Amino acid sequence: MSTLHDTTNEVLTLAAEHFKVPREHLAPDDDFFKKLGINSLQALDLLTRIEQHFHIELPDYELQGVSDFRTLAERIQSRL
Amino acid sequence: MLDLSQYNSLGDALRAALERWPDEVCLIEADRDRENLRLTYHQFKDAALPLTRAMQDSGFAGGTRAAILMTNQSKWLISAYAIFFAGGVLVPVDYKLSAAEQIKLLRHSGAEFLIVECHLWRAMTQAEGFGDLRTRVVLVTEAPRDADLAGAKRWEEFKDSRDPVFVARERKDPACIVYSSGTGGRPKGCVLTHENYLEQCIALTSLYPFWPGVRYLSILPTNHAIDFMVGFIGPFTCGATVVHLRTLRPEFIREAFTKYQITYMALVPMVLKNLEKGLRQRFEELPKGKRVMLNTLIGANRLLTRSRPRLKLSRALLPQVHKAFGGQMRALFVGGAFTEPATLQFFYDLGIQVGNGYGCTEAGTAITLNDFKPFRADTVGKPLPGMEIKIINPDSEGVGEVAVRSKTLMSEYLDDPEMTAETIVNGWMVPGDLGRIDASGHLQLLGRKKNMIVTEEGKNIYPEDIETYFEGLPVKELCVFAANYLWPARTMVGEQLVLVVHPEAAQPVTAGIIANMAERNRRLLNYKRVSGYLEWDRDFPVTASMKIKRAELAEQIRQNHERSAVIPL
Known about the structure:
The complex is a heterodimer of chains A (80) and B (569). Chain A is globular, with a radius of gyration of 11 Å. With 80 residues, chain A is mostly helical. Helices cover 55% and strands 0% of the residues of chain A. In chain A, helix 1 packs across helix 4 (69-77). Chain A has one domain: ACP-like (Non-ribosomal Peptide Synthetase Peptidyl Carrier Protein, Chain A, Orthogonal Bundle), CATH 1.10.1200.10. Chain A has helices at residues 4-18, 32-36, 40-54, 69-77. Chain B is α/β, with parallel strands linked by helices and 569 residues long. Chain B has 3 domains: 4-259, Rossmann fold; 268-448, 3-Layer(aba) Sandwich (Rossmann fold); 462-568, ANL, C-terminal domain (GMP Synthetase, Chain A, domain 3, 2-Layer Sandwich). In chain B, helix 1 crosses helix 2 (41-57) and helix 1 packs across helix 3. The A-B interface holds A 31, 33-34, 39-41, 44-45, 47-48, 59-61, 64-65, 67 and B 71, 95-96, 98, 119, 246-251, 270-271, 274, 456-457, 522, 525-526, 529.
């Protein structure tokens, strides 16, 4: 099973691919709204991409109050 | 629809609707592509009344306040009806606030009952201030079998088969306490009466009628004033159907349009713009020949609908576009924040009407609305029947502060006579916007007068509320302003907050302070963040009671700094 570290890395790679930014520009504690310049709907788009990758379902509310990659990865990890 | 002038309360009107259309479907709940629930008006009554009875058994009486804290789902409406049937006062709480903020509002509202989704309740039990919560009965929905409910009861099991007692209310009695903002500082609990809602419903349905067979797609949470009206009271008092979708993912919204043959939907500007972006992208991807053809047809539709909408004609001219909206879409309602005219025009040119208006929590859902006679993208429409607007102290171009008066105006801010007296003067309320009324009676909004911003998601943000999050910063004093208040700009979009900091004597703003500010800012929900800070080198003007004289400070800042002096955080 993936560790939280692996999951965080995968989330960062998915976000970089999805929003077409270099992977090395993203770090676990980055605020993805700010760093990627996205709104909450675009963040939901990323969530859909993440669901497909990990084969899980994350309700929209899981993103409530989450703005950094590390916390997002924790939410994913708890469902793996 | 029901003749709402004949009813005294929301409970009274909803009860009549449930009797009038027992076999019509009133509520469908879908999650992604799965349908969770489908209820007729009769089944809806059967779901709600056992809850009412159990609440009455627990001491719920006329005037008891009950809060609902849920995402967009069917139990919201079932619980709300149960509360209104028992003569209660509903406190809709925004589920997007932090748990600590929710606790603060619940305390302020005096709610004795709370109906809450399990994940939100769990967050509250772990939040600061949980011990201060004064709710007497908490009902938790969708709790896993082994969940620790911290003394709460399960909503699904909280029922009693005996008939509940209907509790009548008067038109002037409070129906809801709705928080327009103020979670960081002084809570603004708007007390809205049954008359406010009944009159609003009469006005809105005169322009956008509902009837049995109409299907409204609800993606906004029902705590949102627009969804409460057009996604609950409006359709229910007309025998129509509400379809709740428990996700905002665009792919499932598109699917719901077709699957449920949606007639109306309400959304905030951000979602509308997202729909526009998706459509534009699909148009761009068409082969050149088809794209030219589409543009020609859009041009023809624009020309033919110049004086009024012609839905059948638009559907015939642009069948693929209308098919993507399910084929039955009559209008989208947009609200909560200002919508750019170009976006409204884009949809109108496709034959999709967007009901764009102007309102605020204090004055009900909508005060003005576009009547499409003809369509005007540059205004927020004309006052609805029964609503009045005027411009205070207009300049030579007729631009001044907008004031509104109507039967939809709240009675007061809860427990705050001082703020009520400041807000409603001789029956007129001043929402804080600049505008003018043109020759045809349309209201045009031109900027903000008040020190506040409204986000694209429809959130009202009061700068003074944000200051509490920066308290403790090692500076002498600080103040938050809306950038457009400091440097007036004739725009309603792209609004930002600015943090003004006055460092300790002769000290510059150090890297440590900047990091501290950035960290506090990062912890705020994204729509509450300040865009940057402005360094100020003299004492803030204050009143005798040491409150900052904001207008005076803003004037001093305006005279000494350009907007470009703001350093991004």
